[in-house]
């Protein structure tokens, strides 16, 4: 018996610079949402490979840091939306459990904002890894 995942997201190694406009039509809506909201897929792991490869990956990450404020704004808006939904559920509708779920989701969204902001500050202020 084969288990099929509900959301199977796999991307090829091509970057946005090498993608053609027709490539966007090949992705499903969930994949496009994932690419729109999740910033960490655009960065390389600087802990693997030789020292030269690590330096190259760090320089690549520094060149990609300009996109991080946009992702922080997206996640900040998501966090505000979930906090607003939690407030609406709690005050106007008196639903405690859905309000708690909204607040937990908003807190998780805000943690992504903090991670993105720390990554942006780190990549902006430290030009070399070694």
Describe this structure in words.
The protein is mainly α. Helix content is 60%, strand content 0%. It is built from 4 helices and no strands. The protein has helices at residues 29-37, 51-64, 68-92, 96-125. Helix 3 packs antiparallel against helix 4 (96-125). The longest helix is centred in the last third of the chain and has 30 residues, at 96-125. The chain is elongated and about 60 Å long.
Give the key terms.
4 helices, single chain, mainly alpha, elongated, 130 residues
Distance between the termini: 49 Å
Largest sheet, strands/sense/barrel: none
What would the average pLDDT be, to the nearest integer? 83
- Computed structural class: mainly alpha
Strand runs, count: 0
Which residues sit in consecutive blocks of at least 5 with pLDDT less than 50? Answer: 1-12
Count the DSSP helices. Answer: 4
- CA gyration radius, whole angstroms: 19 Å
Globally, the shape reads: elongated
Helix amount, in percent?
55-70%
- In N-to-C order, the SSE pattern is HHHH
**Percentage of residues in strands:** under 5%
């Amino acid at each position: 018996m084969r288990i099929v995942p509900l959301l199977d997201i796999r991307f090829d190694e091509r970057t946005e610079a090498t993608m053609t406009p027709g490539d966007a039509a090949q992705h499903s809506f969930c994949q496009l949402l994932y690419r729109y909201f999740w910033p960490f897929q655009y960065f390389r792991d600087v802990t693997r490979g030789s020292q030269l490869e690590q330096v190259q990956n760090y320089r690549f990450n520094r060149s990609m840091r300009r996109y991080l404020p946009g992702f922080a704004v997206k996640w900040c808006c998501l966090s505000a939306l979930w906090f607003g939904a939690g407030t609406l559920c709690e005050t106007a509708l008196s639903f405690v459990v859905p309000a708690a779920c909204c607040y937990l989701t908003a807190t998780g969204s805000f943690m992504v904002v903090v991670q993105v902001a720390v990554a942006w500050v780190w990549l902006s202020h430290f030009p070399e890894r070694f």
